[in-house]
Amino acid sequence: MTEKPEEMKAMLLKMKEETLKEINKTVKSGSDVPVNEPSGDIYDQASSERDRELGLLLGDREREKLRHIDEALLRLEEGEYGICEECEEEIPIGRLKIVPFARHCVKCKADLEKQQAQTKRFEEDRAYREIALGEEEEG
């Protein structure tokens, strides 16, 4: 890895600070909206609910990012940072600059995502077959 560990640590800590600010902003904006007090017409209520759900989803995404950053900082301390967890090759510095908490090189990450997509498709197909079989038994 051509970057110094201190530089990567500084980048991760800055990213962590920004992520914490985003989480705090999301939490504050979510607490401003009263949950049980309906206001406006049904469209306003639906819009408010959608905004609240989106805020919660973004909050979850930010918390997940925070967890990845903390794991990367731990790998830095243990001297395992920048090594692909799959093939154990060095992760190119270009990738680490874009995704400082990357755990896999681009090739291994693509392979993992392809495998996850296939597993998801297989599970969805199985669920649809079970639904179809259930409907046939009822009919």
UniProtKB/TrEMBL annotation:
All copies of domain DnaK suppressor protein DksA N-terminal, residue ranges: 7-75
Keywords from the UniProt entry: Metal-binding, Zinc, Zinc-finger
Pfam families (alphabetical): DksA_N (PF21157), zf-dskA_traR (PF01258)
Domain Zinc finger DksA/TraR C4-type: 79-114
Keyword set includes Zinc-finger: yes
Listed GO MF terms: zinc ion binding
Zinc finger (dksA C4-type): 84-108
Superkingdom, natural source: Bacteria
Cited InterPro entries: DksA_N (IPR048489), DnaK_N (IPR037187), Znf_DskA_TraR (IPR000962), Znf_DskA_TraR_CS (IPR020458)
Protein name (Swiss-Prot/TrEMBL): Zinc finger transcriptional regulator, TraR/DksA family
Biological source species: Citrifermentans bemidjiense (strain ATCC BAA-1014 / DSM 16622 / JCM 12645 / Bem) (Geobacter bemidjiensis)
